[in-house]
Backbone:
């Protein structure tokens, strides 16, 4: 059995992630999905909790007909030193044979640790991007077509779109032009 590893923050899980996992499962028997930066949530770049991200992944894979015995989802927190990150991942996961990533630092770290690293074909990377999805939510633009239906419904259910908007608010007073506040 060949087991692959796939790392992401999934903030949120989108169609590009789903297509990447489908690609990986065509080439491998099983995939370990690492939910990276698992300690982060309720931030502009990381609005969702680990549990919410895991739920998104499970719902999307179920919707896509991926059998539950084909994947393992494991949250892994960040480490301060990049040089120890691979050993941290190894300590959280069962044995894996190959790593799929397009992220240069992740690829370098796993190659240096002796793993085979394979790139993932990009699937509309300019559109299927968590950053783009969060931007569209903030701008009030359409984003439902960028995520699996089950993920869209889940984000609406937990009011994740409202959370993203709230997290991007500021308590700073905006300047409304220059000049004194006194009379003429």
Residues:
């Amino acid at each position: 059995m060949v087991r692959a590893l796939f790392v992401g923050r999934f903030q949120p899980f989108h169609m590009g992630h789903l297509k990447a996992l489908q690609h990986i499962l065509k080439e491998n028997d099983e995939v370990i999905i690492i939910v990276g930066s698992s300690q982060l949530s309720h931030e502009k770049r990381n609005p969702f909790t680990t549990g919410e991200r895991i739920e998104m992944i499970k719902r999307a894979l179920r919707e896509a007909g991926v059998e539950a015995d084909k994947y393992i989802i494991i949250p892994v927190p960040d480490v301060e030193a990049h040089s120890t990150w691979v050993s941290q991942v190894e300590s959280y996961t069962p044995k894996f044979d190959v790593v799929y990533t397009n992220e240069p630092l992740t690829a370098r770290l796993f190659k240096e640790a002796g793993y085979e690293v394979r790139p993932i074909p990009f699937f509309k990377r300019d559109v299927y991007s968590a950053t783009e999805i969060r931007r569209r939510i903030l701008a009030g633009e359409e984003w439902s077509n960028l995520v699996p239906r089950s993920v869209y419904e889940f984000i609406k259910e937990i009011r994740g779109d409202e959370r993203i908007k709230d997290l991007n608010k500021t308590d700073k007073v905006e300047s409304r032009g220059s000049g004194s506040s006194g009379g003429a």
About this structure: Helices lie at 15-27, 50-63, 85-92, 104-112, 130-139, 149-157, 160-167. Confidence is low (pLDDT under 50) at residues 178-184. The chain has one domain: 3-167. Residues 50-63 form the longest helix (14 residues).
